[in-house]
Amino acid sequence: MPAKQDILAQLQRDILALQGTRPATASAIDLGLGPITAAFPNNTFPTGAIHELISPRPETAPATSGFTAALVSGLMQPGGACLWIGCTRKIYPPGLKTFGIEPDRVIFLDMKNEKEVLWATEEALKCNGLAAVISDIRELTMTTSRRFQLAAEQSRVTGFILRQQPRNLHPTASVARWQISPMRSKGEAGMPGLGFPGWNIGLTRIRNGHPGNWQLEWQAGRFQFDNTPVATLLEQRQRKTG
Amino acid sequence: MSSRFLSLWFRHLKTDYTAIRRPALLTRPFVLALPDHGRKVITAANRLAEQEGIQPGMTVADARILIPTLEELDDKPELTDQLLHGLALWCIRYTPVVAVDPPNGLIMDVSGCAHLWGDERAYLTQIVATLRSKGYDVRGAIADTIGAAWAVARYCRHTPLIEPGEHITTLLNLPPASLRIEPSITTRLQKLGLEKIHRFASMPRQTLRTRFGNEFLLRLDQAFGRVDEPIKPVLPVEPFIERLPCLEPIRTATGIAIALTQLLETLCQCLKKQGKGLRTAVFKGHRVDGKIIQINIGTHRASHNEKHLFKLFEEKIPTLEPDLGIEVFTLEAPKVEDVSPLQPAMWNGATGLGDNGLIGLLDRITNKTGPHTIHRYLPAEHYWPERAFILAKTFDEIATDTWSVTRPRPIHILSRPEPIDVTAPIPDYPPMLFIHKGQRHKIIHAEGPERIEQEWWIRQGEHRDYYAAENEEGVRFWIFRLGHYNGDKTYQWFLHGYFA
What's the CATH number where B263 sits? Predict the structure, then answer.
């Protein structure tokens, strides 16, 4: 008779499969997310799913775009292409290269209004020739997110919905909800200039996973984790310089 | 029935063409010239200029000595081919077989065509008169062989019509240059005193071959009709167009869709046979009341996939107004390109710009929202941030440069730099704090300056000194100061972008 834990694990796997999460395979892409990986179901970054990235204030929007670009660069690695859909574009194409994306492999779709963005996003999520679809959508309803999620599950395209200053945060059908904010650069103590780009990563909702908060930096083309809290570093520096 | 050939000789092809475009030149001597080794060499002269002794090959400076008021225009080397090709297509109304005969002629196979215009004389007069009325100085001749017609058109002063079987007699009295041989051989023949063809036509072939080569003999045989001469006729481009008349006027969307499917099927089969695919297509409906309604589509890559094309049209069918009904449908493909053969799937789930699914998606999006929705950028070799990338013209265009990563570049950029109020220690330190849209940002870390100059040949305004600055929250800005510090004027700072 199998042990109780085995039965539970089997049931867990079955439920995940029913909910659209595919079991981890050898071909799963490792995005180098380190400790964050443990928060995901099956310990793999959910591809073929919808990720919501909330930026509550305009200041956090560049950090959100940067983190998304870093994730997408990992998904695009085998020479893929991605779509960036929106109606007011702020992205500076050469800046994407910092996060490992070849900017000429990104196709920008500049739509006239949010309605067209929704339509284009759903169409794009149905196209399995893409590595990722990034879309600037402010308000996402349950119905729309459900449609996106079903399309993504079918085509295995990963969708990123960048929600800037959303009015409400009702539950949606997306697999994960992130909240990214910029982190003060650590840099070398006493050295002038800016450090590596760093973010406070908040995974506020993850289906069948464990939400959490992390801090990470983007160094030399990959994520770098540092568990030293920023505050202590800053204190040290101020003591030295002051 | 023996073959008959017509040779047309445009004596001043390029200058005539120029004069037709600019009638003011008709009464003045002018030449077309091309630069060559630092001087201008005449490539064509009009009749008035030639009368004064100006020949192609002279330099413009020399020609100006003969005619000080000589007008000189730039020549286009490819113009001759274009003109002859166009004229050949126009001549298809007289005979189906027309070939281009560079540098200044056309050859037409007129066997069995002349009787439609009465006789050969009327036929030739008709062609020559029409061309002359358009403004071309043209001579034509009809003979049994291409060589003879060519020779008679250019060298015979008496009659342009050589009766069947008489071409040899006519040729014998013409100079050897009329045989389409190289100028060097013509000079040699003249040195030897062989000024007319009959002087050497009866010489032993062996002697002629050893002295003047095979090419010479071939030309002689072709002119006399002993050897057939192949010509390469001009093929008119057939438009890809399909037509579907209906027994009764069609008024429903379903009916239109059925008509469209049928038309697409035949058109796509036709395209497939020739290895082509359409880039644009127009679907027209001729209504009972005489009006024409139409829908247009475009694709990003040549396609002859019926299903995909139907999808593109399908979305626009509701915009058609059949009113009382549509009698005739037509489907036309004005822009057609070669289709690259489908590559076998080398890797599964190919994710890339070449993916057919992606192309189909972009087609649908363009079709729905218009052509200015899709943007893709390629690197450009400029440091100036606004010029560091250019819009890719076609979807298959590959980046020739690489994207530079030597200097930090922001992820978000403002479409126009926004002015900010700054407190900064002079002369070259980054600001300590700045106010943007009423919000104070205290700067903790900064790096720079990175001076970016405009290229002097496209300079508009001053250089910029860029700083990357981080505020207390960790938000990173890309700010710049315009121009140099100067004691007596205020300098301006701008916010241009945000780093991630």
Answer: 3.30.1490.100
